[in-house]
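Quick one, T. Sequence first:
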Amino acid sequence: MQITRLADARRYDAPRHFDMRSLRLQGFDASAADFAWTGLSYFLPGGGADMDVGALGKIYVVLEGEITVELGTGETHVLRALDSCFIPAGEGRAIRNEGNVVASMIVVMPYPKGAT
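Structure tokens:
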């Protein structure tokens, strides 16, 4: 078993994200997880991620605050504490914190091919 204590989690930069800080909880340099990696993201008010179409599916779990997820179709959904969603590969999404408090979210993604 490998434990990552929050105090020891390392920061990473996520492309196309703004006003956000992320910590790697599992996978890559944090552990030997061989099927997926997990991150913890903190979004400042007004923070988010630009519209992007990912090659891999991803799971979001909101821990605190609210995150608005806009799909490539223009459809939007607000996720609140302990709400979650799965965004399949090839589906466009943008995310943003439209509230006035910091929002936190767990992200779970498989590794890109060849990255493990």
